[in-house]
Amino acid sequence: MSAVQATDVIGQRIKRKEDPRFIQGLGRYVDDITLPRMVYMALVRSPYAHARLKAIRTEAALAMPGVLAVITGADLEKAGLAWMPTLAGDRQMVLATGKVLFQYQEVAAVVAETREAAFDGAEAVEVEYEPLPAVVDPFASLRPESPLLREDREEKTNHIWHWEAGEREATEAAIRSADVVVRQDVVFQRVHPAPLEPCGCVADYNRGTGRLTLYVTSQAPHAHRTLLSMVSGLPEHMIRVISPDVGGGFGNKVAIYPGYVCAVVASLRLGRPVKWVETRTENLTSTQFARDYHMTAEIAAGRDGRVKALRVRALADHGAFDAQANPTRYPAGLFSICTGSYDFPTAFAEVDAVYTNKAPGGVAYRCSFRVTEASYLIERTMDVLADELGIDPAELRRRNFVPPAKFPYRSALGWTYDSGDYAKALDLALETVGYEELRREQEERRRRGELMGIGLSSFTEIVGAGPNHLFDIAGIKMFDSCELRVHPTGKVLARFGTRHQGQGHETTFAQVVAQELGLSVDDVIVEEGDTDTAPYGLGTYGSRSTPTAGAAAALAARRVREKALKIAAHLLECGEEDVQWADGRFQVQGAPARSVTMKDVALAAYTNPPPGLEPGLEAVFYYDPPNLTFPFGTYVCVVDIDKGTGDVKVRRFVAVDDCGTVINPMIVEGQIHGGLTEGFGIAFMQEIKYDEDGNCLSGNFTEYLLPTAVETPRWETARTVTPSPHHPIGAKGVGESPNVGSPAAFVNAVVDALSPLGVRHIDMPVTREKVWSILRSHGIRG
Amino acid sequence: MKRELTLTINGQPYTGVVEPRRLLVHFIREEAGLTGTHVGCDTTSCGACTVLLDGRPVKSCTLFAVQAEGHAVTTVEGLAREGELHPLQQAFWEQHGLQCGYCTPGMLMTGAALLERRPDPGEEEIRRAISGNLCRCTGYQNIVRAIQEAARAMRGAAEPVSAGQGAAGAASAARGGMVP
Amino acid sequence: MIPAAFDYAAPGSLPEAVELLRRHGEEAKVIAGGQSLIPAMRFRLARPGVLVDIQRIPGLDFLAEEEGVLRIGPLVRHAEMEASPLIRDRYPLLAETASVVADPLVRNLGTVAGSLVHADPAGDWGAALLAARARVVLTGPGGERELALEDFLVDTFTTAISPDEILTEIRVPAPAPRSGGAYLKIERKVGDFATAAVGVQVAFDADGRCTAAGVGLCAVGPTSLRAREAEAFLAGKRFEPEVLERAGELAAAASSPVADTRGSEAYKRDMVRILTVRALARAAERALAA
Ligand SMILES: Cc1cc2nc3c(=O)[nH]c(=O)nc-3n(C[C@H](O)[C@H](O)[C@H](O)COP(=O)(O)OP(=O)(O)OC[C@H]3O[C@@H](n4cnc5c(N)ncnc54)[C@H](O)[C@@H]3O)c2cc1C
Ligand code: FES
Ligand code: FES
Questions:
Q1: Going along C108-178, which residue ranges are E strands?
Q2: Are A164 and A311 in contact (CB under 8 A)?
Q3: How many other β-carbons are positioned within 10 Å of the β-carbon of residue A306?
Q4: Looking at residues A670-695, what average pLDDT do you find?
Q5: pLDDT at B159
Q6: Residue A164, SS3?
Q7: 3-state helix, strand and coil shares in percent for chain C, rounded to the nearest 5
Q8: Number of neighbouring beta carbons within 10 Å of residue A47
Q9: Which among B85, B98, B140 is the nearest to A22, CB-wise?
Q10: Do residues A660 and A560 share a domain?
Q11: Do B71 and B93 fall within a single domain?
């Protein structure tokens, strides 16, 4: 028996059910799968960012010991597989034909008996290129003299799409007539989610059964199966996608990659299982990046600091193919959350997307779609406004918050915020950090010529995509699902369309189900990731799992309870209307001592069902969320700057989050630590850089810098709880708000430290050298 | 070019016929079938592949299997003893020191080696000790906590048994709970 | 990533190892800790035909001070330098260097000698040991020869060693009374090579005047560098702030960094200045505290 009582399962700090296998080295990740007669695949990739393919010679590779096959774009073309659709409605080359469009693009696949032989074979493939001028700068890409990148498209331009929201004229009018207008250019640099486990797959086509099993690092196994069926022509029921344990995803494992398709083709051709696991270099140079948004914000305000209007323009660099994973109707994702926590009477936002000779992508990296960009922009620009007006940034935020009485609140850009109490989170954060005292200390230090900064961010997120009348990816609606089977002994198998990659679903979803069914967490096992068994769902990304699948869990359980109530009435020998669910059991109204538990009911469902009622106890729920959820919070960061080296030391970081009802506080806190660390890395070191020829300069962990335990600050967390009114248990989702909210807090702190020098903005990553060059340009020699 | 090679991993001999270029991590994962040791990079940067070589944590992706011949290799599979979790494994579980679990075996090996040398490491020392191991999920804070908690548990076990507490009790405190 | 194929030999003695190197010529490479060689082999930037593993040769891991000389054997790992009480007590410059080389796991395998032979100008040991006035002993078919480290480090990834020689000892003069050292490094994160780093070793007379100064610079030239002008300038001076500032400027002038992802030329040069000033101050404090 578990010590945890059924009635208070939600909100408990319960140790994770998935951990025992991981701490013993018994997790099963894709690369751990070994099948009989399995062979290995390696990819040949382009050294050029933009080049015409003149010739590919495979003879030498085929002659290498152990090499079984070399697949080229020409081979795939014959099978109609040289291109595949992307999730954004564009298409992407599987293996290059004609041209290569980014450095490290997939050019050929080599299959061999061993991993070593596959690498040797890949090295032996000879490819002749004719280099073309590369387009690296997204602004240059739009100029008429820029070379056309995508010759395959009907539209002969590098411009992909334009998107806008809000009221252009009203916004312009407000800006024209305002007391004060601030304007700030802000770049959110290209970054990469870089989960610790790279992407990979084992494709196993069985010639006997005609079925393909694809073990793959996937955050969205069902979507992968459907798309794979559409690409390959294999009927969907003849494909089984299994996403085993996933070593982190953060958006990187949402897409289908050329390597997967090549492995499938190789397995179909050879009739043997084919393993392909990318190297870290391949991961960083060719798979889904995030951000790369070049933005300008203007805020119009009164002298009193009240905001009047927001105008935002952004240029989005999508690389060689539009392979981002955004809902169809929202090519710029949920970027229109850029009004943030503030009550803007009017606003206007527009985004243009362009092709460049860089890796394709644009995923929601530990955030909801394009929300990090939006949040960073508004939180940065609010500080610029505070500086312009000489108002304390905390005070300016407070003056402009959407007040609690206005919820549900319709934003100027069209979202209906479900619930919020922004001032409460701000107050708690300021009190926890000791804001007044810190400002006094700062003044003192400034007098001594020292550089100390305090940065705030009061973000609002938008997660849980999404309501089906608005949200789909590649046509598939963004519901999610839960299937519950209650076994005769009262044990439960709960299956979901989502796929966790460390978020703790096996525990939190079990808590939701246990709570709703009056069982212990130990009675529930959660299963995800196998398309043969899990109900259809769109997967785990964009902080959508708790808002969608978590809701589906509660509602499937309530569906089980409906039937269970009938059985309970039968067992209690009373009418259904006399039975009520209370304290985690079925009780006779007015005689609570007469009761049965879910366990009793489960047994009866199979051994003693009421006459006329179908035996068994199961339910499926496909949850279409009525709205999104809007987590929020306030973060405060305190930094000290070394005037000699430009080094920024984060002295304190206080994070107050409100994600509605908390299912498991331990897991929520862990998600926040992780997201803050991510935000820290992005603010100070992470960047995927290219040189002017389109060579990727950040293709491994020696150049794509991820914080270690030494650089990472110590996090202080706290929370307020404002439940979502429309979610069955009031939860909002949390995995990603710290990554959304924190970059602005870090940068705001650094800018605050340097503001006596007249500094208003620094683009991320805030390197020592950037700070140093500001100091030196102001004659501070260190 | 291939040769027969026998390595001692977790006290057991494992034999494979491999080329000299076989990396230790691939020998462990493929010849020995112990897949708890992971691969996360190709530049010796991440530590997902950390194992103990004669008790010292090293990156098994940057060592050829032939070099480890005659040495004692310990992997995460060798941490639990006789069905009982190592106190550090227990502490990682208690303190939520893992999320996706991919860095976890490497972190555990580095942490276990640290605790062998230093029974009472401070936070800074722990952070420095694990700085060759990247974690993308946890932000390290709970990993640090877990190592501190394990240190306490192990010290508790090593200190003289107080009256009324049997030796068996102390030993099980040290080893943590049963493997579920 | 997977290295190209090679043959492997693990000789049991030094003469055997030298003979293997002689026989295979340019084809062969010594492998010690493998922490520079294997990463290069994985990217196939190095593809030796034969690896001669010296780790099975007994007696190469000595670390002791004898007759005024610290002797460091070719199998002494960075971690041993970091942990050794002898190094911690008597050679703070070297202990500090050891603690910032790579990361703790790499330090458990990589060797000081391997680092010198690898001759990466961004390697920390070159700069530290130049400041410490180290010498190296090379053993080849014709016996031993000893060189000043300065003469050993020829160019980027190039030393005076010939393919059939093994670096068998590093010799560091033991510190005089009233001397101290320090090593300061700017790195983008733990495990990164230096953006710039400075090692200093200084000694003072009873009046607090500098009698000898070594200043080594890391990652700001084609090899590890000695800041000779700064060293000469410091001789005979007390470490007043202006003196340190001037020494920093001279060290910066001696550097010839190139811009890369770690920073611009100007930034690196200025970091040499800042680090030199701070390292000298710290070294002096240590020297004069005793
Ligand atoms: C992730 C990472 C980060 C690093 N960061 C740093 C850093 O910040 N600072 C730093 O200084 N170093 C750094 N290094 C390099 C590390 O210090 C290496 O250990 C060192 O450079 C080489 O020592 P080794 O024993 O591993 O040599 P090996 O890799 O075995 O050999 C290196 C070269 O030296 C030759 N060689 C080795 N020993 C001898 C000998 N006795 N006689 C003749 N030839 C010999 C080899 O043939 C080879 O050419 C880093 C390495 C890694 C993997
Ligand atoms: S796999 Fe990354 S360090 Fe070994
Ligand atoms: S738990 Fe995922 S990388 Fe550490």
A1: 135-140, 143-148, 153-155, 158-159, 166-173
A2: no
A3: 14
A4: 97
A5: 62
A6: strand
A7: 40, 25, 35
A8: 14
A9: B98
A10: no
A11: no
Asked if the interface predicted TM-score (ipTM) of this complex is over 0.90, the answer is yes
Helices (H) and strands (E) in chain B, counts: 6, 5
* Residue of chain B whose Cα is closest to the Cα of C47: B21
Q: Find where tokens 């500086």 sit.
A: A387
Q: Catalytic: A367?
A: yes
Q: Which of A732, A407, A393 is nearest to A550 (CA)?
A: A732
Number of structural domains found in chain B: 2
- In a shared domain, residues A616 and A636: no
- Does B66 touch chain C if contact means CB atoms closer than 8 Å? yes
| pLDDT score for C290 | 63
Nearest atom of ligand 2 to the alpha carbon of B132: 3
Mean predicted confidence (pLDDT) in C45-56: 97
A425 lies in a domain? Answer: yes
Q: Which domain holds residue B27?
A: 3-78
* Angle of CA points C5, C9, C11, to nearest 5°: 165
Q: What is the mean pLDDT of chain A?
A: 96
CATH number for position B47: 3.10.20.30
CA of residue A142 to ligand 1 center, whole Å: 47
Q: What pLDDT is attached to residue A404?
A: 97
CATH number, domain with residue B93: 1.10.150.120
Nearest ligand 2 atom to the CA of B50 is 4
- Rounded to an integer, what distance in angstroms lies between the CA atom of residue B53 and that of residue B73? 5
Domain boundary pick from B48, B78, B108: B78
- Residue A7, pLDDT score: 58
Optimal mutation site among B29, B41, B82, B147, interface A, most CBs of chain A within 10 A: B41
- Answer for the pair A374, A335: CB distance below 8 angstroms, yes or no: yes
pLDDT tens track for C156-193 = 999 999 999 999 999 999 999 999 999 999 999 999 99
Nearest CA in chain B to C109: B58
Show which of residues 175-214 on chain C sit within 8 Å of chain B, judged by CB atoms: 190-191
Would residue C143 be called left, alpha or beta, if left means φ above 0 and alpha means ψ between -120 and 50 degrees? left
Decide which of B44, B78, B112 is a domain's last residue.
B78
Going from the N-terminus, what domains does chain C have, and what CATH number goes with each? 7-53 (3.30.43.10), 63-173 (3.30.465.10), 179-285 (3.30.390.50)
The token pair that represents B51 in the structure block: 């194992």
- Tell which of A594, A623, A652 closes a domain: A623
DSSP state of A406: G
Between CA A507 and CA A504 the distance in angstroms is 6
Chain A residues within an 8 Å CB radius of C264: 769
Cα-to-chain-centroid distance, residue A701: 21
Write the pLDDT tens digit of every residue in A719-754.
Answer: 999 999 999 999 998 767 899 999 999 999 999 999
Structure tokens that stand for C185 in this block: 């490094």
Report which of C52, C191, C128, C256 is spatially closest to residue A706, judged by C-alpha positions. Answer: C191
**Helix, strand, coil in percent for chain B, rounding step 5:** 40, 15, 40
Against chain C, the chains showing at least 3 CB pairs within 8 Å are: A, B
- C79 interaction partners in chain B (CB closer than 8 Å): 56
Q: In what order do the strands lie in the sheet with C50-53?
A: C7-9, C50-53, C28-31
**Residue from A196, A284, A503 whose CB has the most chain B CBs within 10 Å, to mutate:** A196
Task: Please give, rounded to a whole number of angstroms, the shortest distance from the CA of A2 to a CA of chain B.
Answer: 13
Determine what percent of chain A is predicted with pLDDT higher than 70.
99
How large is the average pLDDT for residues A391-399? 98
The residues pairing with C64 across neighbouring beta strands, listed in sequence order, are C71
Structural domain boundaries, residue A432: 418-462+628-782
Contact B44 C35 (CB under 8 A): yes
Residue B176 has pLDDT above 50, yes or no: no
**Residue A644 is nearest to which of C5, C44, C274, comparing CB atoms?**
C274
